[in-house]
Amino acid sequence: MSLLFRRFVASNLSDRIVQALQERQHVRPHATVSEALDAAAAATGFCTSASDQALAALRLNGSDKIGRLTGCQLSQLGRAIYRIWRPRTGPASAASGSSPSDEPSAELSPELSAEPRDGASHRDNQPA
To answer: Which distant-in-sequence residues (6+ apart) come within 8 Å of 28 by Cβ?
Structure first.
């Protein structure tokens, strides 16, 4: 699978999570964040433990009303859920025979890693 296609699929999945959260916020603004996450998990298929981890990472309270969150907070929450839950796809998972599951993924995507893409160290990029 090409890198561009994987990025397209990844952005599409994370956008679907954000869209499901925005939909819940618009339709039921008095529901709690936890209730909205459960409904969004049922609609999109992400793991509920990923949503719990994302809430903790963003320091959001699950008992707050979903209508009180800003659009930026919803986007951050949806993308954090995706980063934690991200289905395992790629050469390593294909070789091991594993399939996409509800398990959180610990690996970083290439665009989020700390190393430069060309393999050079950060010290090589500094002027002498």
So the answer is: 35, 36, 66
